[in-house]
Amino acid sequence: MTVLNDTLEQSVAAAPLTAPAERPDEPRRIGGLSRSGVLAPTGAALSALCVTVLLFGQLAPFSGTLGFAVTAYLLFLALYAVLTGLEEDGQTVRDRVMTVVLWTAAGLLFSALALVVGFTAWRGRQALPHGNFFTQDMQSSGPLDPLTHGGIAHAMLGTLMMIAIALAITVPLGLACAVYLNQVPGRFSRFVRTIVEAMTALPSIVAGLMVYAVWILGLGMQKSGLAAGFAISVMMLPIVIRAADVVLRLVPGTLTEAAEALGASRRRTVWHVVLPTARSGLATAVILGTARGIGETSPVLLTAGFTAAVNANPTDGPMVSLPLAVFNFVKSPEPAMIARGFGAAAVLMALVLVLFAIARVIGGRGPGQLSRRQIRRTARASRRDTDRFTHPHPPGPSSPPPPDPDPVAAGEAHPAATEPVGAGAARSVGAQPVGTEPAHTESVDAAGAQAGGAQAGDGPVGGRGQVDDRSAGSPTAGESAAVRGPHGDAPAPDPDPVETAGETTGEDD
């Protein structure tokens, strides 16, 4: 028995100790639904609801629908964090809780938007089906008239004309100011940015009072749609500048640096690189300013007045907008006027939606995103460029023929000089023939003079084509290298005849 125990102990001691196998790292699942992802929020919601009912009904003297909802939501977040922490680590718990909070905020915002749009359309359902509501004004209609008489044509026309005037002023000024703030840093740009930020919080009644004091009281002009457009542009301008400035800051600096490196000026860089890249964001900036200005009421009331008739002249006579018409309709106690007011509000929201769609079409896609038509056009241009590079076309008949090159300047030699007579022929042509031996300097000078005389004919001394004495008597470094080689033992590579022609054939003017 003792021997058996000793044998077992020896075998155990001799056996190598192996560490427990570690579990491989598994990537955390980011998307999709899992079992715990469904059961944890469901159980937390039911538990929070039960605890809230117990608190508000039995344990605590709490009451109110809002308090009930807030308490239930807070308990839900706490219980959901506890249930998630049973299976996941702290980072995952924080991620899940923040995801729930963000989804809740998005749901509340969407619900508020749907409630406003739905309530307005529901209350205006009695006036919207009538065609006269969009084609008539209220000049011949009163509060007691049914919905089959009167409409908001005067308010729709006034709104479109006022916002068109405001956009004509705001868009060029706002985009130019944003480009200035983005491209020209300095003290003055910081001052302008500070003024723009201060004007963002400017009350609309102050803008209306300023235009009323300057345009109507100071200059003696009458209330009109033009004055209302000025007041609306004052409200829209800081919004457009701030939003456009933020968008222009997002343009990569490498694009402007590349354009300037290619030699483009600052103006061309901004016009052809910066603005096209930020086009979609600039359209959004214009829409934000339009949404701010199209709903103003007090500046329009101070500067344009009120009228119940259609006025198509923005410089003469009072004019009314849709927000001012809505205010005038809903303050009446008559149900028909209230229905007209909600119908006008629904038309105002539809008008903003149409303007937004137009701006998105003008703005186009983001940088680097092409439409199908642009992709096809780019492919056609690429094919044309490929064909042009692959199959170059000869010059057309209308193009003038190239001028005849000067035989001396081009380095052409007489047939008599092209024979490999020593190195003189190579010097006159500008190249050393392959396989010939380098000659002495005297042979080079003599052959060069002979080639020059053969090229110039029997002209007088110093005439055109005669070899210069200095170039013939004193060959340059390039000529010596072409004749003797770099070390004097082997001929150098053949130089370009065109490049050495000017050195080998001198002229005396």
What does it look like?
64% of the residues lie in helices and 0% in strands. It has helices at 2-14, 35-59, 65-85, 90-123, 132-135, 153-183, 187-200, 204-218, 225-249, 253-261, 266-277, 279-294, 298-303, 322-330, 335-363, 372-390, 424-429, 441-456, 469-473, 477-484, 497-504. It is extended, with a radius of gyration of 44 Å. With 509 residues, it is an all-alpha fold.
**Global morphology:** extended
The count of β-strands is 0
Distance between the termini: 127 Å
Kindly provide the radius of gyration, computed on alpha-carbon positions and rounded to a whole number of angstroms.
Answer: 44 Å
Characteristic terms for this protein:
509 residues; 21 helices; 0% strand
Short characterization:
The protein is an all-alpha fold. The longest helix has 34 residues, at 90-123.
SSE topology sketch:
Blueprint: H1 2-14, H2 35-59, H3 65-85, H4 90-123, H5 132-135, H6 153-183, H7 187-200, H8 204-218, H9 225-249, H10 253-261, H11 266-277, H12 279-294, H13 298-303, H14 322-330, H15 335-363, H16 372-390, H17 424-429, H18 441-456, H19 469-473, H20 477-484, H21 497-504
